[in-house]
From TrEMBL:
Role description: Major role in the synthesis of nucleoside triphosphates other than ATP. The ATP gamma phosphate is transferred to the NDP beta phosphate via a ping-pong mechanism, using a phosphorylated active-site intermediate. Shows the highest specificity towards GDP.
The protein, known as: Nucleoside diphosphate kinase
Organism: Amborella trichopoda
Keyword presence, Cell division: no
All residue ranges annotated as the Nucleoside diphosphate kinase-like domain in the record: 12-149
Residue window of the full protein shown: 59 to 220 of 220
Catalytic activity field: a 2'-deoxyribonucleoside 5'-diphosphate + ATP = a 2'-deoxyribonucleoside 5'-triphosphate + ADP; a ribonucleoside 5'-diphosphate + ATP = a ribonucleoside 5'-triphosphate + ADP
Active site: residue positions: H126 (pros-phosphohistidine intermediate)
EC nos: 2.7.4.6
Transmembrane segments: none
Binding-site positions, ATP: K20, F68, R96, T102, R113, N123
GO molecular function, one term: nucleoside diphosphate kinase activity
UniProt keyword list: ATP-binding, Kinase, Magnesium, Metal-binding, Nucleotide metabolism, Nucleotide-binding, Transferase
Compartments in which it is found: Plastid, Chloroplast thylakoid lumen
Stated family: Belongs to the NDK family.
Length: 162
């Protein structure tokens, strides 16, 4: 019935989140994961990888005409990136809220970039900007078998349904 459908919807929405090399090197992995975890979202995939420049270009293909594209792809491929998939109701849009505006000078305090970053070229985190990019980015970064299906013990408390 209806409550059951809400639970299903919550389980279906997934977004791709990555801590970029600056966030990893600054020791911000635990802090950033905590924010998604404490909100009530469920971690379904995670790995530490150094992407190649070609891979970074694929990830940021939408920005290939922008002047910062080459430097951005060099940077993303310069060191370890923590790639993750997070799941939950509204996680794509609300994940972007948790992250804050692209330019940390404009990110609100309380957001990840607002609290932890200063300049746009070192804004520590990536998050998918919509449902289509979320699917594309999850498929680019993860094989299907790397996505872990499990029931979170917290779910019935986060969503208030059984
Ligand atoms: N970026 C940059 N200079 C700019 C705009 C963006 O270096 O003027 C970088 C920044 O790291 C940003 C990434 O390019 O996170 C991707 O840009 P996008 O507009 O997709 O921002 P995001 O979705 O990450 O907020
Ligand atoms: Mg973007």
């Amino acid at each position: 019935y209806m409550l059951h459908d809400q639970t299903q919807a919550a389980e279906l929405e997934r977004t791709f989140i990555a801590i970029k090399p600056d966030g990893v090197q600054r020791g911000l992995i635990a802090e950033i994961i905590s924010r998604f975890e404490q909100k009530g979202y469920k971690l379904v995939a995670i790995k530490l990888v150094v992407p190649s420049k070609e891979f970074a270009q694929k990830h940021y293909h939408d920005l290939s005409e922008r002047p910062f594209f080459n430097g951005l792809c060099d940077f993303l491929s310069s060191g370890p990136v923590l790639a993750m998939v997070w799941e939950g109701e509204g996680v794509i849009k609300y994940g972007r809220k948790l992250i804050g505006a692209t330019d940390p000078q404009k990110s609100e305090p309380g957001t990840i970039r607002g609290d932890l970053a200063v300049v746009v070229g070192r804004n520590i985190i990536h998050g998918s900007d919509g449902p289509e990019t979320a699917v594309d980015e999850i498929n680019l970064w993860f094989k299907p078998e790397e996505l872990v299906n499990y029931t979170s013990n917290a779910e019935k408390w986060v969503y208030g349904v059984n």
